[in-house]
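Technical note accompanying the year-one report. For the benefit of new consortium partners, we illustrate the data format agreed upon in the data management plan: each record pairs a sequence with a structure-token string. No post-processing was applied to the example shown here.
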Amino acid sequence: MQRCNKCDIYYFDQFALCPVCKGFLTKDILDKDKDVIENIGNPLEKMSNQMREAIKTIEDRQRDISEHAKKLKKQIEDLRKNDENNK
């Protein structure tokens, strides 16, 4: 990770100069910068986990709805057969 000395922006990619202000980039990470980076990662990881859980829940609900629809379709077919047999 690099940090611009002028505009204090962090970059994960390797640049010779800051793309924003053309200032010099430092490659070493200071202790205070390590704390900033670690604190950024925690909320992102939490959001990522929440998104995975939400997607899993949606997929489970879709599966439940599909199974319920199949059961209803079978019930309708059975009712139609019974209705035809009673005529």
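Partners are asked to follow this layout when depositing records. The mean pLDDT is 82.
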